[in-house]
From TrEMBL:
InterPro entries according to UniProt: ICDH/IPMDH, IsoPropMal-DH-like_dom
Protein name per Swiss-Prot or TrEMBL: Isocitrate dehydrogenase
Signal peptide residues on this chain, from the entry's feature table: none
Protein keywords: Manganese, Metal-binding, NAD, Oxidoreductase
Entry cofactors: Mg(2+); Mn(2+)
GO molecular function, one term: oxidoreductase activity
SMART domains assigned: Iso_dh (SM01329)
Cited Pfam families: Iso_dh
Domain Isopropylmalate dehydrogenase-like: 5-344
Length: 372
């Protein structure tokens, strides 16, 4: 029987608990829509920063970081070759992740619709493929030397993706403007020159700004509706949570995002993740907030499993559960992860089961005959 297959990569800390939530919600949605969605799990459990530190000296940490990066990169390449459309990954050590993001040319995408107190929508495309978060470390006597690079080809690829994704986001009008936030003053004018040449191909205005200028304009004027922000990691990593707050788009603990891999070897593979980290201090306590994971499972079920309306159904269930005061402690509640997910599954079943035969649609992409 043909069915979509989704990759799953699990890190330490609360990774196993998050993965269990993902599989349970994905399986519940598949059952309610009368379909099947397979999951293929990476055989390696990847380190968090905390688990790496427990391993001992710097040389061992360096070696394990590279091993994790190499293994996860190969897992992504293998899944892409098998036409797996998406991977859900729990939080893992950032240094390993950025090695993979550099090698597979990743961008992180988050669409922020107008929320409470915001009149504009925004598309954030975070350049994870180059710049100051990427690169290799060389350890000398009491010194860590980190080398990184920017390239015209990658800059063009990231900007081209951002423009295309913006037209998907706003198909009737396209984007109003593109704001690029990079520390370009440190690059001898090269990035400025590249962007000027590349931007001439697009009808939409493209502006390259220093991060502090982007912040000043955001505070003073805000962003116009349908703004695309293409940003280097050194700004976007810090400002993502600020933009979520500014646009009324929820807390980072409740948020999931996409990492789209642009390298031709894996082109089209999308990695989903929670915005929150590995939360090692909550490991084994059944207290991790499951909302972001639930939303990731719903997005994957809808986009790749033929479960039309799954994301909206999950939002209704989340509102129902929260309305009854069923929340994890970080949201002011007293309930466990399991209790929240139990309540959510019950709400989903009550909402969807009577309508299931009317809501299922044929699968349209990336299926394979796989027993996973």
């Amino acid at each position: 029987m043909l069915k979509p297959v989704i990759g799953l990569a699990v890190g330490r800390g609360t990774g196993p608990e998050v993965a269990a939530v993902f599989e349970r919600v994905l399986g519940t949605l598949a059952r309610l829509y009368g379909t099947e969605i397979g999951v293929v799990r990476s055989p390696r459990t990847y380190h968090s920063y905390v688990s790496l530190k427990a391993e001992g000296d710097v040389e061992r940490v360096r070696r394990l970081t590279e091993e994790d990066a190499g293994h996860y990169e190969e897992f992504c390449r293998t899944q892409a070759a098998l036409s797996t459309p998406a991977v859900f990954r729990t939080a893992v050590n950032a240094q390993s992740l950025y090695l993979v993001r550099q090698r597979l040319q990743a961008v992180k995408v988050d669409a922020l619709p107008p929320g409470d107190g915001a009149a504009a929508s925004l598309l954030l495309v975070r350049d994870q493929a180059q710049g100051f978060y990427t690169g290799e470390n060389q350890h000398l006597d009491g010194v860590v030397r980190r080398t990184m690079e920017f390239s015209r080809d990658l800059t063009e690829k990231v900007l081209s993706y951002a423009v295309g994704r913006a037209w998907q986001q706003w198909p009737d009008t396209g984007p109003a403007r593109i704001v690029m936030a990079y520390k370009f003053h440190l690059l001898d004018g090269a990035l400025d020159s590249w962007v000027t040449d590349i931007a001439a191909r697009y009808e939409v205005p493209v502006g390259l700004f220093q991060p502090d200028t982007v912040n000043r304009n955001l505070i003073t004027h805000g962003f116009p509706d349908r703004t695309v922000v293409v940003a280097g990691n050194e700004w976007a990593d810090i400002m993502h949570v600020v933009l979520l707050d500014r646009f009324g788009s929820d807390r980072q603990e409740n948020r999931c995002t996409e990492n789209v891999l642009l390298h031709p070897d894996v082109h089209g593979l999308t990695e989903y993740q929670t915005v929150h980290g590995s939360a090692d201090d909550l490991e084994g306590l059944d207290r991790v907030n499951p909302v972001a994971t639930v939303r990731a499972a719903a997005a994957i079920a809808e986009r790749y499993g033929g479960c039309v309306g799954a994301a909206e159904a999950v939002e209704r269930a989340l509102l129902s559960v929260a309305g009854r005061g069923i929340r994890t402690p970080d949201l002011g509640g007293r309930h466990s992860t399991t209790a929240v997910v139990d309540a959510l599954v019950a709400a989903l079943s009550a909402d969807l089961e009577p309508e299931q035969p009317l809501r299922r649609v044929p699968l349209a992409r990336s299926v394979r005959a796989d027993a996973s």
